[in-house]
Amino acid sequence: MADTTARGLRLVADVPAALADYDAYTAALGGRTPAIFLDYDGTLTPIVSRPELAVMSDESRATVDALAKKLPVAVVSGRDRPDVEKLVGIESLIFAGSHGFDIHVPGREAIGSDVIEKYTPVLDKVDARLHEVLDPIPGALVERKRFSIAAHYRLVSDEDYPRFRAALDEVEAEAPDLKEKLGKKVFELQPKIDWDKGKCVLHLLQVLGLEGDEYVPMFFGDDVTDEDAFRELQGRGVSVICADPAADLERKTYATFRVDTVDDVIGLLRRMTP
To answer: What is the pTM of this model?
Structure first.
């Protein structure tokens, strides 16, 4: 079996390429049954300028659907669960939205966090304040989710970014009960609770009865928020980052393997389909 022990952070360029060294990749699975966890944006669909434009291709959907007929497959996304469920359009999948705060397993009631319901008034207030200070900035986008608020700056010019950051800092200072989570060209404000994608994956493994040695948990992702899952799976599972080292020379990751593009993610999943 390939070495999947904890390594800490390393440059993406130093992470083995799963497709180029597929033998090492399969060796890391050790003949166990994969339990697969997939991010959505940047993993199953390319990163786009606006969240509503991130549409999964028919080929990607067919590949994931075929895989889910053979193996446990869950989508763990920062999007609201109903949003990502609609975008993926495969009813048999397990979905965890809002970075794992909102989980649905087919045939069961949704698993939500009653604790964070108390944060709704805070989120409502911060949402209004963010619109107040960010809407005047060209390209800034405020996206309200059920359990968080995303402040996107992908379309904000370099000239306007300091203004964007200063406005965000102003609002965050008014909301000590929220924490900031960095993503790709987005800052997400979430309830200050010890919960993330990694803890969500561990929770799902327990709920679904997939903690035994016969299973190998696998997480596919691209963003900074996915590093929480990569880190949790070090030494016990396999993780794959979708990142081109040539495009991000300084990016570091906890991932076990890498692929360069979304097409490579789909190609790897296709090869894995029993």
So the answer is: 0.81
